[in-house]
Amino acid sequence: MISICIPVFNFNITSLHNRLMAQMNEVKKDSCDIIVIDDHSEEEFRKVNREICKDNVYVELEKNKGRSGIRNMFSGLSSKKYLLFIDCDSIVENPLFLKKYLGCIEQAPQVVCGGSIYTKDPPERERMLRWKYGTSRESKPADIRIKDPYRSFMANNFLIERDISGKIRFDERLKGYGYEDTLFSYSLRKAGVRIEHIDNPVVNGGLETNADYLARTDEAMSNLVEMMRSGNYNDEITEYISLLAFYKKVKKYEKSISFAFSLFRPAIVNMLSRGYVNLRLYDFYKLGTFNHLLLIP
Questions:
Q1: DSSP-derived 3-state class of residue 178
Q2: Which residues touch 195 (CB under 8 Å, ≥6 apart)?
Q3: Given this model, what pLDDT does residue 129 score?
Q4: What pLDDT score does 227 carry?
Q5: Rounded to an integer, what distance in angstroms lies between the CA atom of residue 156 and that of residue 180?
Q6: CATH says 2-204 is which class?
Q7: H-run or E-run covering 244
Q8: How many CB atoms lie within 10 A of CB 264?
Q9: CA gap 122, 278 in Å, rounded
């Protein structure tokens, strides 16, 4: 019924794999299987994951396809009706995690999002930015997410009909990190695909350092700029993505934003990198970076 799909890049999935296998032993035989695709990781990770996945479908790519490209491959490798996508750094704490998704498919859903949470205790200061952003902006119960089901979509823990996954694809023009899940949910909305939300979260275990998360933010803003320059998205997407909707309102002040950002960027980066996190400052960092990249010819 369900293929558990784990895209991997430079991560040891032993813990995640063992927990999922243990839960698979508690459900009806052959109701679930595991498919792992390695996106050209370093050999030390491939060696470990290759061994633990010897009884699963395991594929190693000869070159990196990126976050969108690798997700688009799973539907062609599965024979199950549903695909359950789980990021490789996820932690499955709920012992009934699989049973809950299996119970969902009795209602023949199209897409189901389980949600994402973070550890209750804050991490060391050098990883505070990702944790604070996640706990404040991403960790929401299902009754909140369902109020805006498409914008609440996250690709780290979701169930989807295989046939839908084969037709509605992640945009492979986006390279690296950022906005691939947003554009995918936008495509689902345009196609009239229903997204449901339940409380069946995974713990986000891959907290980047503050510096790494800022670098990923730069990458995401670059993706957003390239998307806008491509001309393949209409004005509707501007309203769908909150940063673009806000930028549309303040675009007439782009030179002032550019001046202020160039003036305060070093101080903002210093504060956020050291773990003194103010999410309003982080929001301005994203806006300023997007504006700066957009102004580059």
A1: coil
A2: 110, 111, 112, 113, 149, 150, 153, 185, 188, 189
A3: 97
A4: 82
A5: 11
A6: alpha beta
A7: helix 242-250
A8: 15
A9: 15
What pLDDT is stored for residue 176 in this prediction? 76
pLDDT of residue 232: 64
Q: Is 274 exposed, middle or buried (0-12, 13-18, 19+ CB in 10 A)?
A: middle
Q: Where are the domains of the chain?
A: 2-204, 210-295
Q: What is the DSSP string of 99-116?
A: HHHHHHGGG--SEEE--E
In terms of Cα–Cα distance, which of 11, 3, 1 is closest to 87? 11
Please list the alpha-helical segments (H only) found in 146-192.
162-167, 180-190
Phi, psi of 6 (to 5 degrees): -120, 105
10-residue mean pLDDT profile of the chain (297 residues): values are 97 97 93 97 97 96 94 96 98 97 95 97 96 96 98 97 97 84 95 98 94 96 86 76 93 96 97 96 98 90
